[in-house]
């Protein structure tokens, strides 16, 4: 039996403010945590409210929430030594970042996730 040994939750929030020194960008607002509670909460919520399929990227199905300007995805990855990683992604878009591409954001996040699990194996 394989247990979930690693959990990664990515959240991207487009900034709601203008920093005089830097342009507003989602790259400065990426949060990564390893909370099992957040992952379980997201899985439960998304199971009940599945949203609308937006696109697929590298085996990830990305959905757009029906009730908010947000995109989400989740996946599990089998690791060596009977480990298993669970990853969730949530991207909040608002008026400040209308030109932000959910595809581009997901590409960046998936790359970061793959680098993290590569270090485990």
How are the secondary structure elements laid out?
Layout: E1 6-13, E2 30-33, H1 36-48, E3 52-57, E4 60-64, E5 70-79, E6 83-92, H2 102-120
Parallel strand pairs: 1-6
Antiparallel strand pairs: 1-2, 3-4, 4-5, 5-6
Structure characterization notes:
This is Cytoplasmic protein. It comes from Shewanella polaris. The protein has 121 residues and is α+β, with helices and mostly antiparallel strands. The chain has a 6-stranded mixed beta sheet with strand order 2-1-6-5-4-3, with helices on both faces. The protein has helices at residues 36-48, 102-120, and strands at residues 6-13, 30-33, 52-57, 60-64, 70-79, 83-92. It is built from 2 helices and 6 strands.
Low-pLDDT stretches are none
Distance between the termini: 18 Å
Structural class: alpha+beta
Secondary-structure element order, N to C: EEHEEEEH
Based on Cα principal axes, name the global outline. globular
Percent in strands = 35-45%
Biggest sheet overview: 6 strands, mixed
How many discrete structural domains?
Answer: 1
| Secondary structure tally: strands | 6
Give the % helix: 25-40%
Please give the count of helices: 2
- Give me the side-by-side strand order of the main sheet: 2-1-6-5-4-3
Radius of gyration: 15 Å
Rounded mean pLDDT is: 87
Organism: Shewanella polaris
Protein name: Cytoplasmic protein
